[in-house]
Specification:
There is one protein chain. By secondary structure, this protein is an all-beta fold. Helix content is 0%, strand content 47%. The chain has no helices and 8 strands. The chain has a 4-stranded antiparallel β-sheet, with no helix packed on it. The chain has a two-stranded antiparallel ribbon with strand order 1-2. β5 (49-54) and β6 (60-64) form a beta hairpin.
Length: 89
């Protein structure tokens, strides 16, 4: 359930520790992730929960209400910055 952000700008020298970790964690394993078109934000899904994060700081900005009745299986963010989630429900 933990988000870790790694610096991959130099593939020859990938760090052994993440550059930052998310400020909070999901209660279960993350099943999906999607980045906004500009890379400023990303969303993660674990179980029925979706969190919105700020990429630069790793800070959780928002927890969306659990609207799905089953596990979320995929996330995407459209070019218009609309978050779309799918579930087994």
């Amino acid at each position: 359930g933990k988000v870790r952000i790694w610096d991959l700008s130099n593939p020859d020298q990938i760090a052994t520790t993440p550059m930052r970790e998310g400020s909070e964690a999901h209660a279960s394993a993350i099943q999906a992730i999607a980045f906004s078109p500009n890379g400023q934000y990303f969303a993660t899904a674990a179980g029925r929960d979706i969190f919105l994060w700020e990429t630069e700081s790793g800070r959780k900005l928002y927890a969306l209400p659990a609207e799905h009745r089953d596990v979320i299986t995929a996330l995407t963010i459209t070019p218009q910055s609309t978050l779309v989630s799918t579930s087994r429900d």
